[in-house]
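From the shared-data thread, chain only:
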Amino acid sequence: MPLPPDAFRHHPGLAGMIQDPETSFFRDFMPEDVDARMREMGRPADWRYTDATREANRHAALAGRMDRDLWVFAYGSLMWDPALLFDEVRRATVIGHSRGMVLYDTFGARGSPGAPGVMAGLVPGGSCEGVAFRIPAGTVDRETEILWRREMISHCYIPAFLPARTAAGEIEVLGFVADPTAEMIRLDLTRAEIVRAAATGEGLRGTSYDYLKNMLDHFTALRIEDPELSALMAEVDRYRADTSGQQSP
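Structure, as C-alpha cells:
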C-alpha cells in the first residue's frame, strides 16, 4: 500500500529524503534474524525481549489508543527510514525531553565491540526537534507491531506519550525515551568518547558518522537549527581528519 499523495503536504522537500516504507529493511525485520550474529558476538541467549514480552509491552503502552490516529515522534533514524505507512508528516518539537547522543552501540547496528558507535536517545529536560508521522487508526495495530520489533528489540527505551508543538497546533506523540537502567544507554559518556564513537562506529546498519550526517541533512531540509549537533559534527570531522593524517604513510 503506497503512501497517500498528500502525505508530504506540509514538507514537500522531505518526499525524496524518506525511504519508501515498503522497501525498508525494518518492514519485515524479525528479532530472531540477528540471534546468530549476537551469539557470535558473545551475547547471552536472552539478549533481547521475547516476542511475548515485547507484545505485552506494546499493548500496555497503547492501551485505549489502538482505535485512533497515532503520532510517532522521530528524532534519529526514524526520520529518514520510518518503515511505517503514514498519512502525514509534520515538523514537531517535543517538550520536556531533549536529544542526547547516549545510545552506546556495541551490538552491531552502527557500532561493534571493537568499534563502538553512538546514536540518539531522548533524555529528560529541554526540548527536541524532529518530525511526527501520523498513522491512521485502521493501521495502528499493524504499524506499531513493526515499530516495536525495531525500537523495543531489547532493553533500551521506554515508550512514552509526550506533548509536542507543530505549526498546526499541539499534538501528543509516541516517543521512545532512553532508559537509564539499560546497558546500551550511557549518560556518563565524555565528549571525547562521543566524538570518537560518532567518527569511527560501524555496524550492519552503517556508520555512526552517516547517522549523524543524516540527522543534520534532515534538519537543513526542515530549516531546523541545532547548534549542538552542528558543533558535534565539526568536532567529528576534525577527529576524522586528524586520525586520517596519523594513519597516512
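Helices lie at 35-40, 51-61, 140-151, 191-200, 208-222, 227-247.
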